Amino acid sequence: MTGLKGDIAASSLTGTLTLTTGNATDNTISIATGSAATSITGSGAGDTISVDATALVDNTALTLAGSAAEVVTGLIGNITAGSLTGALTVTTGDATDDTIAITTGSAATSINRQRGGRHHFRGRDNASEQHRADADRLGGGDGEAVGG
Fold first, then answer.
1. Which of 42, 46, 59, 45 minimizes the C-alpha distance to 8?
2. Cα dihedral angle (133, 75, 71, 131), rounded to 10 degrees?
3. Is 4 left (phi over 0), alpha (psi -120 to 50) or beta?
4. What does the pLDDT look like over 4-22, one tens digit per residue?
């Protein structure tokens, strides 16, 4: 789907979901992912895209790109956001294998871990140091692995 300016509830979707947003007039778009791989490109630089990733299966890719800010909650899959230039805020869930891989983009990133487990964070370019600092502030769980 291209040009999405409203909300989408796809939590019962079992197939791949690929979305490109338009510039929402109220600057907010809410997306609930399904269980399969999901790709979201946010094209509104002033927009904030809220992604409920609760239905996304463990070790399944959530790919984020574009200039919009992305706020992801309930993540037990993995994030690939190397092409994201908007801010990224992630709140993880409890992955059954205790591993969540997050590759960040070039903007500010905040990662909040809700439950135990080992999470892997990889920053990009000059943002890597900030991601290391963010990972150092994480609470709970049994450790973080950070690379840049």
1. 42
2. 10
3. beta
4. 888 999 999 999 999 999 8
